[in-house]
Amino acid sequence: MYHLYGALVILAWAAVLPYQMVMALLKRTASLSFRERLGSLPAGSPSGGFWIHAVSVGEVRLALSLLPLLRERFAGAPVHFTTGTATGRALAAAGGGAPPESISALPFDLPFTMGRLLDRLRPRALLIVETEIWPNLLRSCTRRGVPVFVVNGRISARTYPRYRALGSFLRRTLQGVRLFGMQSGEDADRIKSLGAPADKVRVTGNVKFDLPPPRADRDGLRRKLGLPDSATLFVAGSTAAGEEQPVLHAFRAVREADTSARLVLAPRHPENFAPGENAARAAGHRVALWSRVASTSGRAAAPWDVLVLDVLGVLPEVYAASDLVFVGGSLVPRGGHNVLEPAALGKPVLFGPHMDNFRAAAAALTSAGAGFVAGDGQALGDLAVRLLADRAGYRVASAMALRVVETNRGALERTLAMLEEDLAPAGMPGRKAART
Q1: What's 26-205+410-431's CATH class?
Q2: CA atoms of 232 and 263, how far apart (whole Å)
Q3: Domain 218-407 - what CATH class?
Q4: Are 344 and 361 in contact (CB under 8 A)?
Q5: What pTM did the predictor assign?
């Protein structure tokens, strides 16, 4: 079965890789190193520490929150990141002041590529963020005695049937994981039904509840954007292709209720920056780009109705300056994005019905009266206008958003405890050993 799987991987990459390289050239975006896809490491990459795989932006942000605690509790062990996207890699390199010691692309899931990286990296442990199951990676780790941990694991309703179709092959693959730290009881039940041994599965909670809110100067950011204090700022974050029109429809309703309102449109992926800008201009709005407004160096920004956030990594700060927040990837079937970032800032959160990737967080916010589900642009506009009109209700929703986040904290500590419990007895210094 592994031979068949390997052949399919080779065929898939032979078809996909040329397309990715051509599109990267056409769009002038960074592409991941082909040498690294074959298992090479950047010069100076340390060995003997942790290897963390975090596929893209959301997973990288979570993984970065683990870094200082890993270094504290495991005697300053070095950390190597692998990512699956250029945007994820860029965020990892920025690191929020504490980047990993080295970063590379995840190799093709073939025995020789994964084996090459493992033999050069010689990790003491591999942490996979949010359940990326790569059969040859897990098999190669097992053969080399490298313990593998799933951190903040989840199995979505969309991927669950696909995994089940793999049957006994997946069951054998999952034997290569030392411990599964899953976000919820439902996620734990799903991974066990797919073949994970019950005694290896823990419910550790969602680490994204523990991410600190951004340090943001709300008033300073508004001044930088040329926004009066009284202007309503509507932020549509992490939007996907196909959501521009519904968001602009909702913004039209908000503008009818408050003519001073402005919209920040923040596409999830760089390839959607230009379509978002074009859609806003076609709707008759004055449009500005964050990259230009942010470089005015104190000069007054030109008036705008819609600001396209055409850079990555600043969305949490913009959330802090907002009055209304919609989190995208949810009006179209993409599974949604992180609703906890704005909630941790005390913002009521609007989102669409497709929230499978954040179903527990979305349900908690909705149940508390801090999350609001809209099926389309019309409903999104209606909900936004209702929140603006009901100031007392807005304040209650804001307080409940904060309460939901606060009462669900603790997953980060439980995750670190899971790692310490297993790794320290195996000879990797834990917190107590490191301090003696």
Answers
A1: alpha beta
A2: 9
A3: alpha beta
A4: no
A5: 0.87
